[in-house]
Amino acid sequence: MKNTLKCFAVFLFFLKLNAQTSNDFEQIGYLLSDALLYSERYIIPITDAAVYQSSSGWILSPKKKEKWDFTLGIHTNVFFVPKKNRNFQIKNSDFQFFEVEGSTSATVPSALGNNDQIYLIGEIGGEQVRFETPQGINQETVIYPYLQVSLELPYGFEFIGRYSTKTKLKKGDYQVYGAGLKYNISQHFSNWEARKIHLAIATIYSKEDISFDFLDVNTSYGNLGINRINGLVDTWHFNFLMSKEFKKFDLNGNFILNNSRFEYLVNGPKGSIEGLIPVQDVINNLLTRIAKDKTNCIFEITGVYHIDKLALQSSFAFGKFANLNLGVQYQF
C-alpha cells in the first residue's frame, strides 16, 4: 500500500511538472509574439528610410556620352532623420507577455530614435524576465560614403554601379550596393539636342542591408538568441530624367518610382534555449508576416558643375523623407 502511494505521489509530481513546463512554453510563445510586435514598430522606420538613401544620386546626367567613356565617383549621402519616425508608443494592453515596468504605457525609440531605454518585464517558471528596450541610432543625420562607376555603352546605353562598405552607426550597421542601365531618349530628337535638353530613362536595382542590436532576453531556460535583427531591402528603381545645359552647369530633374521588397530576420549567435526551442527559426518564420512590398514616388533635383574632366554633383531627393547626396566624379 505504501509503495502504491509513493508511485501515485511521483506520478502527481511529474504531472504537475509537465503542466508547469507546458505553461512555461506557452509563455515563451507569448514572448515571441510580443517580440514580433515590437520588432515591426522598431525596425520598419529605418528600412523605409533606407529606400530613400539608396535612391539618390545615381545619374550624373541623362546626356549621351562618347562610347566607352568611363567615370569614377566618390559620394557622400546625407539622410535627414524625420522626428515623427523616431519613437512609438507601447501599452501593456499591446502585449500578451510583457508589461512596462512601473507604468501602463511608455514612449520608446524606433531604430531611428534616441538612446532612451525602459524595462519590460514578464515571468517564466516563477522567475522574472526583465530586459531593456533597444536603442536607436541617436543621430540627426545618417551619413555614409560610397563609390560609383559608370561606363558608356553603344546605342546610348550606360552602365552604372554603386558599392558602399558597411557603415557603422551608433547602434547598428548599414550597407548598400547595386547596378543599373540608363538609356538616352533625346538622341532620337535632334531639335532637343540642339537646345541642349536631354532626356533619359533608367532601371536600377539596389540592395540595402541594415542590422541592429535587438532584444537580449534571458529566461530560466536560457538566452533566447534574438540579440540582433536585420532588415534586408531589395529595390527596383525606375527613373525618368530630364536636364538642361547652361554652359558648365547642368540642371537635372528626376522622377523616381521604386518598388521595394522587405525581409526581416534575427541572426547572430543562437541562444542557449535552442536545445529546447529553435527560437531563431520560430521568430524568423513569424517575421515573414511583416515583410511587405512597398512602392514610393520620389522627386530629385540635381545640379552638376563641370571643371574640365571633373564634375561636382549635388542631388536633393524628397517625398516621404528628404535626402541629400554630394559627389565628385572624374571622367577618364
Q: How does this model look, in words?
A:
The chain is α+β, with helices and mostly antiparallel strands. It has a single domain, classed as Lipocalin (Beta Barrel). Helix content is 20%, strand content 50%. The chain has 3 helices and 18 strands. It has helices at 2-55, 190-194, 279-287, and strands spanning 70-80, 87-91, 99-100, 105-109, 119-124, 127-132, 141-152, 157-163, 167-169, 172-184, 197-215, 218-219, 222-223, 226-246, 249-267, 293-307, 310-318, 322-331. The strands form 4 sheets. The chain has a 10-stranded antiparallel β-barrel with strand order 1-7-8-10-11-14-15-16-17-18. A 3-stranded antiparallel beta sheet has the order 3-5-6, covered by helices on one side. The radius of gyration is 26 Å and the shape is elongated. The N and C termini lie far apart (98 Å).
Mind telling me the CATH class? Mainly Beta
Number of strands: 18
Largest sheet: 10 strands, antiparallel, barrel
State the secondary-structure class.
Answer: alpha+beta
Mean residue pLDDT? 87
Low-confidence segments, ≥5 residues, pLDDT <50? Answer: 1-20
How do the strands of the widest beta sheet line up side by side? 1-7-8-10-11-14-15-16-17-18
* Rg from alpha-carbon coordinates: 26 Å
The CATH topology annotation reads as: Lipocalin
